[in-house]
Structure formats: C-alpha cells, structure tokens
Amino acid sequence: MAEESEKVVIESEKKESAEKVAVESEKKRWGDEEADEEPEKVDIGSLTLAGKNAIDDPHESEIEVKTGDSLYTSAKTFEELNLSKELLKGLYVAMGFSRPSRIQAVSLPMIVTPPYKSLVAQAHNGSGKTTCFVLGMLSRVDPNHKVPQALCVCPTRELAIQNREVLLRMGKYTGITSMCAVPTDKNSFITTSRMEAVTEQVVIGTPGTLKGWIAKRKLSTRYIKILVFDEADQMLAEEGFKDDSLRIMKAIEGNKSNSDPNCQVLLFSATFNETVKDFASRIVKDGNHMFVKKEELALDTIKQYKVQVPDELAKLEVLKNKIFLLAQKLGQTIIFVNTRQSASILHRTLEKEGWDCTSIQGALELDARDRIVNEFKSGLTKVLISTDVLARGFDQAQVNLVVNFDLPIKYQHPDPQNPRQRRRTEPDYEAYIHRIGRAGRFGRKGAVFNFMSGHDDAELMEKIEKHFQHKIKEISSWESEELFEAALKEAGLA
C-alpha cells in the first residue's frame, strides 16, 4: 500500500508539473519537448542511428553507436531505466522533464544498465548531455554508504559549480550528498592539510583541486563507482588537463575495494578531434562509443553569419548600431574575445557609451567571477563579454545571440620554410563549436555573428567553413541596416 501511495503522489506531482509547463510559452529543456509521435523502440547495437525510424539527436544528426557484444534498447520513458522513485520524482518534479531527449534515449541505457560499461560520448551542445552523466552518477550512488562514490572532473570552476547545481535539483529527493572541489578565494581558503576528509557521496570539481585532495588523502577513491569527465576532449588533450586526468584515473584504479573492483568511466563532450578520440578509445577499454560526424556539428537551429568590416572600430559600430538596436527579440548576448585585455577594453568602451554589460576572464578574483556569472544567470545583466573561459558547457537558456568579436584561434606558428615571415594563425575549431553552442540551447532559435577584419580573419573563416563543410551566410555590406534586419528576422530575433 505504501508503494501504491508513493506512486500516486509522484503521478500527481508529475501531472501538476506538466500542467505548469504547458502554460509556459516555450519549453525549458529538451527533456520537456513535445512528443509529436511515439518514438519507435530501437536496439542500440553496432549501428548508425539516422533516418526517419531511428532515434536521432535533437539536431537530426547522424550518430555512430558502437556497443560491441552488449545489446541495449532505447528508452522512450524514464521509467524504462529502472530508476528509483526518488530519482523519477526529481526528473519530473524538480527538473520538469516529461521524457528523455533523443540523445538521452540512446545513451542512458548504456550508462545505467549493468554491467555499467564505460562510454565515450559526443553529442551536440544543448542536447541533454549533462542530464545523462548526472543521472548516471545519482543512479550508481548508495545513499546509505557515506563515502565518495562518484567523481566528476570539469575544466573550469564555473562548469563544476553549474553541474553541481543540476545534480542538487535532480537529486533533490534522494538524500545523496555532494560537494564542489574547486579553487576558492583567499577569504575562504583552507589548506588541504587542514581540511576534513571528504564524506560527501558525489564530488564535482576541477582537476588540480581533485588531484591535490586525492594526493593528500582527503578524498578517498576506494569506493568510486563512476568517474565522469565533462568536456572530455579538453580534459584529455596534451595542451589541456591530460596529465591531471590520467593521475586521477590511476589513483582510482590503484585503490579500489575488492567488493567493487571496476569503475565506470564516462567521457562526454560536444567535440573530439581525431587524436583525442583515439586516445579516449584506448584508455576506455571495452567501452561503448557514440560519435557525431564533424560536418553535423555546425548546428542548423543556430543561424550563423559572417561580416567583413574594415577595422576594429567598425566591429563596435556593427555591434551597437546594427545588431543591438535592430534586434527587437533579443534575450541575452555573449560576446567572445580572444584575450583578457580585449575583454576589458570592450567592456569599458560599451559601458562608456551607455550599454549595460559585464565581462569575465580568468584573471578576475574568484568571488568576482562567481558574482558576474550569477548576475547573468539571474537576468540582471543582458550582455556578457567573455574569453573562452565560458565557451564550454555554460548553460543559459535565455542566450539567443553570440558574437565572435574575435574569431577563435588555436595556436600561432611561423612558417618553417621562412622563419622571418610573420606568424600564421590557425582556427580553434573546437572552440568555435562550443562558442556558438551557447546560443540556441535545447533546440531554441539563436544567431551567431562572426566579425572579420582583414585578410587573416577571412582566411580563418574560410578554414572553419571547410572543416565543418558548412557554408556560413555573409552579410555583404556592414553598413546596411536592411541586410542586418533581414538576418535578424531570419534568426527570429527581430
């Protein structure tokens, strides 16, 4: 009788939540999407998911899924995943979901079904990846065992904090404890040697802090069942956090309890270059794999434009007098620049001319970074200028405009055949995808404007188009109000 009563309560709360969501003008997440027809059950074997009868991803892309000998069935409801009633309540009531998104329908059975095989997963920005690995962690934790059992490693403190906020909502009714392992400001700093041993069951943090806690034996890895790397391509890249990530994995492998010798590893990102993809596949032995073709990554729901301007001042002119003034349906805007100095200069210039905006970059004090992010997430500020510190994973549904004030660059190198020649610049393809993915979250409409000043920028843009096999529409005259107005209308912003 108690179980029946609990089921009635959850169903009642699901109904109330559904009614509340229905009144809203637009859905909040992919988990809330309207069902136009019942998705067909598909066996997830060594196949490619594409076409009319397959479960595709939110942007109709082709997803390659390799599962070896294991057979899985896609989930059209969360109930099919055999989750606890507390987790189901969290999904329906706290999160407001109605059913799994398409990417969740494919990946969640691979994550939460015994024998809990590891997974290397690539999916579009805004397709529901965070829900996949957060739900995976919560489903593996034993609430009665008061030790760390799940670990999530993130490249930035902002992303770690955001992921924990999702976990707190989703796990609201489970009683599962969690904490963030991120750098702290000097006012609240405590040396690792003086801190208490971690007893929280889920720990989400940045690699340096996690590695330090593990090395000082403040964070035990003995009972870790599941290890997640968010933005895994950056976590495993030579120029990223590869060494720290491998040390964390080695610490877990070398300190497992006899009762639970295997740790499930989940690697999630919107981008994987071939080098990192090969490396990830080698370290995740006997795991499942899910990848999107690179030409499918340039999101069709986001309208992308390129604008050739004569100089840096013209970029400012286009931003103020063409985009901001003409976009009548503008939500929030993120403007990306390449350097801390550019962020500060652009912030001061816009503010001086009466535009209310904020800027964030890695050199700011940690409490200032937290305040700026919170103000933007709460809607107090509408325009945020950022370096790539917020390019990955930053989730704000109201952002429907991204401006690449500077095109993303990966590295600079001189021509080896001519050392005296000026340095040539290559585009950062992964950063481009992550930047534009801040707009149009969860399938909403959004727009991206790419500013080009000079031949070098035009060459960068051409390389980006060629890499993703995606032609970006050009606004032929930076001075034409009519062309910008037409572009903004096409993108749903005017």
UniProtKB/TrEMBL annotation:
Supply the EC number(s). Answer: 3.6.4.13
Query: Which EC class heads this enzyme's classification?
Result: hydrolase
Location of the Helicase C-terminal domain: 301-483
List the Pfam families: DEAD, Helicase_C
Q: Residue ranges of the Helicase ATP-binding domain?
A: 110-290
Which GO terms of the cellular component aspect does the record hold? cytoplasmic stress granule; nuclear envelope; nucleus
Q: Taking every annotated instance into account, which residue ranges of this chain make up the domain DEAD-box RNA helicase Q?
A: 76-105
Q: Does the keyword Iron apply?
A: no
List, in alphabetical order, the GO biological process terms annotated in this UniProt record.
poly(A)+ mRNA export from nucleus; response to abscisic acid; response to cold; response to heat
Q: Positions of the region Disordered? A: 1-43
Q: Does the keyword Disulfide bond apply?
A: no
Highest taxon of the source? Answer: Eukaryota
Output the Gene Ontology terms for molecular function.
ATP binding; hydrolase activity; mRNA binding; RNA helicase activity
The UniProt entry, under InterPro entries, shows:
DEAD/DEAH_box_helicase_dom (IPR011545), Helicase_ATP-bd (IPR014001), Helicase_C-like (IPR001650), P-loop_NTPase (IPR027417), RNA_helicase_DEAD_Q_motif (IPR014014)
Per the annotation, the residue ranges of the short sequence motif Q motif are: 76-105
Q: Could you tell me the keywords of this UniProt record?
A: ATP-binding, Helicase, Hydrolase, Nucleotide-binding, RNA-binding
Bias type Basic and acidic residues, positions: 1-32
Enumerate the PANTHER family for this protein: ATP-DEPENDENT RNA HELICASE DBP3 (PTHR47958)
Protein's name in the database: RNA helicase
Task: Give the species.
Answer: Amborella trichopoda
Its ancestry begins with: Eukaryota, Viridiplantae, Streptophyta, Embryophyta, Tracheophyta
